[in-house]
Amino acid sequence: MNEYPSKTLQEAVEAISSLPGVGARSALRLALHLLRQPKENVRHFAESVAALADDIHYCSVCSMVSDGELCSICSDASRDRSIICVVESVRDVLSIEATGQYRGIYHVLGGIISPIDGVGPSELTIGRLVERVKEVDGKVEVILALSGDVEGETTSFYIYRQIEPYGPKVSTLARGLGFGDDLEYADALTLGRSITNRHPFKP
Amino acid sequence: MNEYPSKTLQEAVEAISSLPGVGARSALRLALHLLRQPKENVRHFAESVAALADDIHYCSVCSMVSDGELCSICSDASRDRSIICVVESVRDVLSIEATGQYRGIYHVLGGIISPIDGVGPSELTIGRLVERVKEVDGKVEVILALSGDVEGETTSFYIYRQIEPYGPKVSTLARGLGFGDDLEYADALTLGRSITNRHPFKP
Prior knowledge:
The structure is a homodimer.
Chain A: H1 7-16, H2 24-36, H3 39-54, E1 57-58, E2 65-66, E3 80-87, H4 90-99, E4 104-108, H5 126-135, E5 141-144, H6 150-163, E6 169-172, H7 188-196
Parallel strand pairs in A: 3-4, 3-5, 5-6
Antiparallel strand pairs in A: 1-2
Helix pairs in contact in A: 1-2
């Protein structure tokens, strides 16, 4: 006998527990929950997930997830095409969009340069970014919005070297204490950088 | 613009966040994880879940989930057909099977009598249980393995009244302190019952 009296149930539990952060017990709980739902709901759930494999495209300009050739940001006429924000992943675009503070366009690298993980520049969309900068004769601002760790800094530096010859303005994210953070609870690195990078007080 | 730049992604996130205990942020994390997987894995995942709607049957004898007409327990010749353990749900069968201590067969009620939730005896498989007892002229032991709350007790009592005329042996689960439990941390009800239901010490 199997661990479960139904192979169908067993396979569903195994599939669900392959998700990150979902253990065998949670997977069983979720599978039994789905079993109790109307069949149409379960089919709709499965189809929505299958669509991630079958219907997702990546924007031919910025590599953001998209339903078609161009993503909704690149095809939005109201976005400012003179600023390209370079990020590691789709998730980063969603995070920046959620702030409502950015009206430019994006470039999704699809990862970060990491020799340990075997990710070199050619695995990323850096070549396409260089093309984008060349296409506008360098008349663009490129914001390097990558993480502040060694790999992020390495990738930022590599990209800077690649695009710099074409003359774009290159900027990076402000780093320092979070708004509302207490000095007491800030990590020493962040607090130290906040002091080093202090700027004039604007009352 | 939508919250997400892709309708496909948005629908997958919405579907995933309909699962119990999965919030919008976790759902996005899981959807983005699936996006990074090979397409075949995502399709396999979706198909395994869809099978919960399309390929799951319920055993015609005990109502356990099954791949066919009879579940793997009812069709297992080595199981003891003289003991029927009555449980509320599929999950309870899995819990008891996991102990490896029970070799009888089951009867899954599909719920518990609960007037507040509008669940009466006719919504459950109690009629089929009575038939099973009649079919063997009452020559069977029925273990009422329902929860110890008011609804569980009510359901146990109702079932007892229905099957008792046919003469089966009716038993229920032992309750008391868990093995390895400290008296100090036991709840008062359990500890009290453990004292009331004390039995001779067998060294």
